[in-house]
Write a structure and sequence with these properties.
two-stranded antiparallel ribbon; single chain; 2 domains; elongated; about 160 residues; 7 helices; about 45% helix; three-stranded antiparallel beta sheet
């Protein structure tokens, strides 16, 4: 029978993980909860995660938003994180490219309109929502005159930047 005791303080969790040498999966099985719950408890109580469990706990925090297709990563120490601790992947990719944090007013545009395609070649940075909107209005105007789709015209316009 699983003991569903939650950890009200970090001491019991520290005892199980460090003194008894149990990994996160074993603690979860013993308590009858998910490994995610154990990682959340550890983070809440400041218990450091050891060994291979630490790597798995960090890599597990990636999610795709249903309906929109956007991908987010759990980065709680990011200065512009959402309240849940997540940051959109395309913003992280652009930040890595420019070597610094994006301002919240800056907008990252997907050239091919596929929000799950977060490769650097597919992203453009705009300084504001107004500039991004102007770009879309220009695309709509020029594609009415050109025999290309919006996506093809967008790719041609930015392929040499």
């Amino acid at each position: 029978m699983a003991n569903k005791r939650i950890y009200l303080d970090g001491w019991g969790l520290y005892e199980d993980h460090w003194r008894r040498g149990l990994d996160i999966e074993r603690i979860a099985r013993e308590r009858g909860v998910s490994t995610h719950a154990v990682v959340c408890w550890m983070n809440r109580h400041g218990v450091p995660i050891r060994g291979a469990s630490a790597v798995r706990a960090r890599t597990r925090r990636r999610t795709r938003h249903p309906g929109t297709g956007y991908v987010s990563h759990y980065v709680p120490d990011h200065p512009y994180t959402q309240t849940s601790g997540y940051v959109l992947e395309h913003r992280l990719v652009m930040e890595k490219k420019i070597g610094g944090y994006l301002d919240p007013s800056e907008v990252v545009h997907h050239i091919d309109q596929d929000v799950s395609n977060n490769s650097v070649e597919n992203l453009i940075l705009f300084e504001s929502i107004a500039e991004h909107t102007k770009h879309h209005l220009e695309l709509n105007r020029t594609t009415a005159l050109k025999p290309y789709s919006i996506h093809e015209w967008d790719k041609m316009q930015y392929q040499f930047e």
